[in-house]
DUF2219 family protein
Amino acid sequence: MNKYSYCATMIAAILSTTTMANASSLAISVANDDAGIFQPSLNALYGHPAADRGDYTAGLFLGYSHDLTDASQLSFHIAQDIYSPSGANKRKPEAVKGDRAFSAFLHTGLEWNSLATNWLRYRL
């Protein structure tokens, strides 16, 4: 199976899951902060102030929420955040060429909400 048919299958599965689950919601988010020279333009385009996010490079978030009753909701998520040196940090005198530090933080969470709303996680 090639990459495009795999992506189409995954999108169809996600969409069919969200439409079949009447009182539930599924959220997926992919973030990539490694925009390089385009970052100032993207900040201006989306109205974001120029913020220093340290060495955050990318992340993936997958969450599922289910309404237990009309007034309560249970949510589960799994996420991975990836950190690697920014361009400015790679140009520091103490940086060694070819040495690219890397760390990833995998975390999960289980949340209960007494006010069931349209649960959707938006990650910047």
Summary: The beta strands are 24-32, 56-69, 72-83, 103-113. The first strand starts at residue 24 and ends at 32. Residues 23-113 form one domain.
